[in-house]
Amino acid sequence: MALPPDATVSDVGEFGLISELTSLFEQGEQVLVGPGDDAAVLRVRNGHVVVSTDLMVEGRHFRRDWATAEDVGHRAAAQNLSDINAMGGRATSLTIGLAAPADLPVQWALDFARGFAAECAEVGATVVGGDLTRADQVVIAVTVLGGCTVSPVLRSGAGAGDVLALTGRQGWAAGGLAVLGRGFRSPRVLVEAYRRPEPPYAAGPVAAEAGATSMIDVSDGLLAEARHLAEASGVAIDVRRDAFEVPEPLVAVGSALGADPLGFILGGGDDHALLATFPDTTSVPEGWQVVGEVLEGSGVTVDGAGYDGPTGWTHF
Amino acid sequence: MALPPDATVSDVGEFGLISELTSLFEQGEQVLVGPGDDAAVLRVRNGHVVVSTDLMVEGRHFRRDWATAEDVGHRAAAQNLSDINAMGGRATSLTIGLAAPADLPVQWALDFARGFAAECAEVGATVVGGDLTRADQVVIAVTVLGGCTVSPVLRSGAGAGDVLALTGRQGWAAGGLAVLGRGFRSPRVLVEAYRRPEPPYAAGPVAAEAGATSMIDVSDGLLAEARHLAEASGVAIDVRRDAFEVPEPLVAVGSALGADPLGFILGGGDDHALLATFPDTTSVPEGWQVVGEVLEGSGVTVDGAGYDGPTGWTHF
């Protein structure tokens, strides 16, 4: 369809846009019935499905002037794919609900869909259905389905004596967000990390096979996620400051903003790193870094003491 | 948790409200891992899953002054459960994404969840996960999962010579909406039909077993859905006016508003009736009413001619 560059969603209409969007989504081999019917039908292996859902709201989770539509598509897919990763599973199928103002440029929706599909392709997952409707602001609702080849890794399995380990970039997106919030666009590597996270998708299933006792993805903040693990498992977790090597761009931003750069690492989310516990250091897979330990008790400490910096994000 | 009656979502916070909501959702036997982890894990039978997603936006799909929170919960669940019904399947599991303004009363969210859970209980389905975040208006994103015991019934299987049949109330919700739109609250039976649809949940699987060749749920309007069937199947559909007995409350509303009451039936959605095609009249199950026929060609006609009344709802 040839569109004027400034065409809006209301110009092409609901069904016109759905048709355009659907054509962007290739279907995977798991798809028995794809988009266009009342529901999709998917082949499922191993007798179970892993499912998670997430919302992204314009002005809250993204700003159209801080990230391209394609970036937002990548991020929306990444944060959902990461939830399956954190169970030790592999994502296969996603649905997208898109609520949008009538004056949203069609090009934005198409670029969003392209970014979304490209991120899904990283793990071989495909978009199998969705819904489109009108709202005052852009709201993106994604549901992701997948499966595990070994038992899913829950938040609740950590035991005293386990080691806490991390894999993936951590704090980069928070650094990028801080930079954007001050009106800057550099260091570019951090801004890019915020716009397009690179979750360690291969690491979740590997950790499950290696015997991870608990796992979570870092979307709200490292210490906040550690607290989720500690609460679900009924244990205490101590994080070691010296386990983290602060990358140079975060040092630069900390220095420019007068902030402790470790704060981005301990309090930041949005990189979708994985945080997991393993029975001992020998069971920690390659590419993971031991950053703390699991103790009897409750709560999360840093070097054995309370931490008074920001620990994560809260929505209300 | 004892709450002041006017507590808002921002008073109890994201995690407080999630905890309250989760406690309202009983878990079904299909749930291997329920709410509270990065993802839910569900047992799946027959090697497939049927999945659909829908959005409801405040001011567009519902108004808080026209329906109670419990009603909105019933409707949100019903419109999704109905999509699985329209495949001939049975729903088992749902996720809810709720975006809400910070000043949304907690009581609204709890009543919504109660209505949602009660509607799901009608078919034995349960809420297995969700997400909660802040937005300028209430947006509800639901994904439903289920399964079929026979092949799913698609929109694309109708053939010339089939009969078109309908089951469930049709036009009642549209009548109720018209009444509310004029500032009235009666006939109460229509307003109630709008607030709480009663989709014919048992009928979808029965139709599938009876050999329905195509099926769709009427959410956007009867003639609009007939058009979806006709387009997907590459056939024409003719609907017969005299097949419909116009119920007395619709006659009354038509008369009060100076409208053709049949318009509510032909153009109305939201009752989530089922529209299906069957090979012949003898294969139409009990409780279905033959309302038209499938012909060679394309398009939808009423008594062999074009129809110039409203045929359905469009979102942009």
TrEMBL record, chains A, B:
Record-listed substrate binding positions: 61, 270, 313
The keyword ATP-binding is annotated on this UniProt entry: yes
Alphabetized InterPro entries for the sequence: PurM-like_C_dom (IPR010918), PurM-like_C_sf (IPR036676), PurM-like_N (IPR016188), PurM-like_N_sf (IPR036921), ThiL-like (IPR006283)
Binding positions for ATP per the UniProt entry: 130-131, 155, 219
Pathway note: Cofactor biosynthesis; thiamine diphosphate biosynthesis; thiamine diphosphate from thiamine phosphate: step 1/1
Binding, Mg(2+) 5: 220
Binding annotation for Mg(2+) 2: 54, 83
Keyword field contains Nucleotide-binding: yes
Pfam entry (one): AIRS_C
Domain annotation PurM-like C-terminal: ranges: 160-251
Keywords: ATP-binding, Kinase, Magnesium, Metal-binding, Nucleotide-binding, Thiamine biosynthesis, Transferase
Reactions it catalyzes: thiamine phosphate + ATP = thiamine diphosphate + ADP
UniProt GO molecular function: ATP binding; magnesium ion binding; thiamine-phosphate kinase activity
Broad enzyme group: transferase
Binding-site list for Mg(2+) 1: 53-54, 131
Similarity-based family: Belongs to the thiamine-monophosphate kinase family.
NCBIfam families according to UniProt: PRK05731.1-4, thiL
More details: Reaction mechanism of ThiL seems to utilize a direct, inline transfer of the gamma-phosphate of ATP to TMP rather than a phosphorylated enzyme intermediate.
HAMAP family hit by this protein: TMP_kinase
Protein name in the entry: Thiamine-monophosphate kinase
Lineage: Bacteria, Bacillati, Actinomycetota, Actinomycetes, Propionibacteriales
Gene encoding the protein: thiL
